[in-house]
Amino acid sequence: MIDRYVSHDELQRLISALLVMLGFIGLAALFGFIIVPGLRFQAHTAQDSPVIAVQGDAGWLDPTDYPRRAQQVIPPIDPKTVLTPNPELMERGRALYAQTCATCHGVEGKGDGPGAKGLTPVPRNFAVAAAWKNGTRLEAIYRTLEEGVKGSSMVSYNYLSKRDRMALAHVVQSLGAFDHGASDPKAMAALEKLFASAGEVIPNQVPVSLAVDRLLQEFRTVPELQAAGNNPLLEEAVSNSALAAQTLGGLPGWQSSEQTLAKGVLAGLPGNGFTPVVATYSPARWKELRTALMGQGATR
User: Fold this and answer.
1) Of the candidates 184, 211, 238, which is a domain's last residue?
2) If I label 223, which of 72, 94, 259, 297 is the partner at 20 to 30 A Cα–Cα?
3) How far is CA 119 from the centre of its chain?
4) Contact 79/203 with Cβ under 8 angstroms?
5) Is the dihedral of CA 279, 283, 287, 288 positive or negative?
């Protein structure tokens, strides 16, 4: 019947075009139902950062010298995946325990790690039920990891994600065979709400030793400028030689760039040892001042 309106060749072309269109629709449906949900899951699932052993000569008893780490943005997570121990969570917790806890608490949690010697009070023995500061229930251990224990060497582990702290709490409980007590329903409900409703941002982390080195570089003692003598430019520009020297010590690169010198000095006026009159200086005048300062011993 249709051959009365279209030729045989044209009919074949129409059928071929229809098959191509149906194939395209099928691929689009497959992408929508299978691929897109997987991409969404991957985008909203936090990836655990690897537990990396501290590198370099950080010292075996310095838990603050963890490796530098970029900021992490962690979305809310399903409380069921963290409030009840599971193989994946326990594996994560054991790796974290070996990295951050075993030095003081020991491999088996008996408080006999190599870093325990000389600590007062001694590290907690997780294998016995006595004298736990905040209690032995899961929420209590999580609180200890979050806040630390005042008056002891137990520092806060709030630089770890909430999931990692909970993984550690489960591992700590597993090191004692005694009954840790049933959790308080209200406390557990609060933890469920915390995990389900609030994501978190883990800020950039650097070893304390590196931060201290940077601070020392910024605020190191700098020799005072020598007396201005008969140099009218220095007499005009410098009001306090000690403060001016300290200002220059915190301006790396000013010796080779009058632009750097001007920017740094002007940002700290009027209390940085330089007089307000320098705000009126031309580029040529700043160049003269830089030369004069270097000639007076401000070379650091």
Assistant:
1) 211
2) 259
3) 28
4) no
5) negative
pTM exceeding the 0.85 threshold for the entire prediction: no
Classify residue 270: in a domain, yes or no.
yes
Domain around 146: 72-211
* Residue 206 and residue 281 in one domain: no
- Residue 31 is predicted with a pLDDT of 57
Residue 227 and residue 145 share a domain: no
Residues 197 and 243 grouped into a single domain: no
Lookup: tokens for 291: 């030369």
144-195 pLDDT, tens digit each: 999 999 888 888 988 888 899 999 999 999 999 999 999 999 999 998 888 8
Please tell me the predicted confidence (pLDDT) of residue 248: 87
Q: With a cut of 50, which residues of the chain have pLDDT below it?
A: 36-46, 53-61, 63-64, 298-300
Determine the pLDDT at residue 30.
Answer: 62
Judge whether 125 lies within some domain: yes
Residue with tokens 């129409």: 14
* Any domain includes 45: no
User: What does the DSSP assignment read for the chain?
Assistant: -GGGTS-HHHHHHHHHHHHHHHHHHHHHHHIIIIIHHHHHHHHHSPPPPP-PPPPSS--TT-TT-PPPB--EEE----THHHHS--HHHHHHHHHHHHHHTHHHH-TTSSS--GGGTT-SSPPP-TTS-TT-SS-SSHHHHHHHHHH--TTSS----TTS-HHHHHHHHHHHHHT--S---PPPHHHHHHHHHHHHH--EEE--B--HHHHHHHHHHHH---PPPPP-TT-HHHHHHBS-HHHHHHHHHT-TTGGG-HHHHHHHHHHHTTSSSB-GGGGG--HHHHHHHHHHHHHTT---
- So what's the pLDDT on residue 28? 66
